[in-house]
Amino acid sequence: MFPLNSVLFPGMTVPLRVFEDRYRALVHHLLRIEDPADRLFGSVGIREGYEVGDHGAQSLYRCGVRLQLTECERHDDGTFSIEAVAHDRINLEHLDPRDAYPVGHVDLVSDDDVDASPELVERARATLVAYAAALAQLRPTDLGSAPGDPYWLSWVLAAAAPLPMPDRQMLLECTDTAERLGRGIDLLRGELRAMNVIPSLPASEVGRTRWSPN
């Protein structure tokens, strides 16, 4: 497990700088796995505390994501620069910190309903396109193309919405694709209205990461 001070969504690609001994040990373990497809680890958001230090994470959210290590660069000082892509959601039942790196006992989480009406999907795609265009006027930004699949589209909207961590966690825990799409539409439309009044740079997670359904 690699707890972070952020909430990740399925499809997101995240860069990480690994310097703590316990997470360096985790990377070494992953690199020893022969098949790259099996280089998997989990991450949950830190509800209270910090990413670093022996007593950093005081409280963790239970719902997180399972990631695959896709890129790794080893530095002379023993640290790593890695990239990982989030595949699916997990529910953390128990975290055992006694090993060389934290080990989580998790269950996979799936959506109860992955369907959404064509009208809702089209509204979501149009909203994402409008938001990407408005954001591009403020800084170079690539949100990628809007997927047609409702499930993956819901995660793109969730990742694009500039939200505080508890609200992002709420979207991550939502198990209804249509509900997630509706919330994402409302959030991005609200941000578009705010940007029209006071141009600003929203604190979007997607601005610092890439998105991929692979």
UniProtKB/TrEMBL annotation:
Residues 1-192 form the Lon N-terminal domain. Pfam families: LON_substr_bdg. SMART domains: LON (SM00464). This is LON peptidase substrate-binding domain-containing protein.
